[in-house]
Amino acid sequence: MGTIVNFILSTLGYIAIMYIPANIIIDIIADGQTEFYYLLIGLLLSLLTCSIFICLLYAQDIYNLYQLSIKKAEITIESGAKMTKLTYENIAVFYSENKIVYTIQNDGTTLNTNFTLNELEEKINDQLFFRANRQIIIHKDAIYVIQKVENGKLRILLKASIGNDTITEINISRYKRKAFIDWYQ
């Protein structure tokens, strides 16, 4: 973070160093008498505009890196003697049944894993996945409908392509409701 601040300050310093002589030369060519006040205001406006522009460019770069890390992120699932690499965007749900954790892909394919849900929760991106309850971790893109039910609970219905009778609907408790809504938005 310190190098970013140094970069911004050095760029703004170069702008200030170039602005003052350029303004003096333009003043001599225009044969005018520019007051120091106008020189200072022009310099400050130029520096403000440039600093905003530099920060926006830097923010765009950070956002692009973040998007790239999400799209290219993957997890290796060991299922018996097979090892399968799945990208986050191909995973719909992780769920636990009889102490075995399964992965449901977007096309409905189910794989069993050697992970526990707690281990998966540590490995995966919490911007994309949410631990709905003790048995289920859900991907943001797998959600089809969110319904409000009694006592402040939520019911999540998954997309039709994720055809699994075990988890047709997922309930979010009223205690996790706010965290889920904040995550989903």
Task: Looking at this protein, list some descriptive labels.
single chain, 185 residues, 5-stranded antiparallel beta sheet, 3-stranded antiparallel beta sheet
Tell me the β content. 25-35%
Structural class: alpha+beta
Rounded to an integer in angstroms, the radius of gyration calculated over CA atoms is 27 Å
Distance between the termini: 28 Å
Strand order of the largest sheet: 5-4-3-7-6
What is the succession of H and E elements? HHEEEEEHEEEEEH
Number of helices: 4
Structure description:
Helices cover 43% and strands 27% of the residues. The longest helix has 37 residues, at 36-72. It has 4 helices and 10 strands; from the N terminus they run ααβββββαβββββα. With 185 residues, it is of the alpha+beta class. A 5-stranded antiparallel β-sheet has the order 5-4-3-7-6, with no helix packed on it. Strands 8-9-10 form a 3-stranded antiparallel β-sheet, with no helix packed on it. A two-stranded antiparallel sheet has the order 1-2.
List the helices and strands and how they pair.
Elements: H1 2-29, H2 36-72, E1 74-79, E2 82-87, E3 91-97, E4 100-105, E5 110-112, H3 117-123, E6 129-131, E7 136-139, E8 143-148, E9 154-158, E10 169-172, H4 177-184
Antiparallel strand pairs: 1-2, 3-4, 3-7, 4-5, 6-7, 8-9, 9-10
Brief summary:
With 185 residues, this protein is an alpha+beta fold. Helices cover 43% and strands 27% of the residues.
